[in-house]
Amino acid sequence: MQPIERLFHAVLFEVLAISLSIVGLMVFTDHPVTKLSGTMITVATIAMVWNMVFNALFDRLIPGKREERSFMTRIMQVIGFEGGLLLITVPLMAWMLSVGLWEAFAMDISVTLFITVYAFIFNYCYDHLRAAILRHRQGNAGHDHLPV
């Protein structure tokens, strides 16, 4: 992927993730959409920054080729990332939505589980749609098709 497509992929992923998270929280809570929107945009922004910070620190702590990391190392990386993110976002969500820590934790865990499944589905669909578009473009390369 070229940098512009990576940017498109990341923005599309985040816009859909935030939108779907807001809709899900609207269905299961009684919080107004304005508060949920602000909260989810803030949480997504923190997650992106935390991702860069955490993974830079993790790469220093666990040197070597990333593709050679063991399954257990990858599990520890995910647990460390998500655990750190929860420590940051649960109190923030509690404050922004005026709820207790337990309710904020339950909402945050729900969003985290949703995002995990969503990321799998989104990337699967994106990759297959991208491949189909590229095949279509390659099949039409060199052919001038005028609209009828």
Automatic annotation (TrEMBL):
The residues that cross the membrane are: 7-28, 40-58, 79-98, 104-126
Q: Which Pfam families match?
A: BTP
**Protein name per Swiss-Prot or TrEMBL:** Membrane protein
- NCBIfam families per the UniProt record, alphabetical: PACE_transport (NF033664)
Give the organism the record lists.
Photobacterium aquae
Domain Chlorhexidine efflux transporter positions = 3-63, 69-131
Q: Which InterPro entries match?
A: BTP_bacteria (IPR007896), PACE (IPR058208)
Q: Which UniProt keywords apply?
A: Membrane, Transmembrane, Transmembrane helix
Keyword Ligase annotated: no
What highest taxon heads this organism's lineage? Bacteria
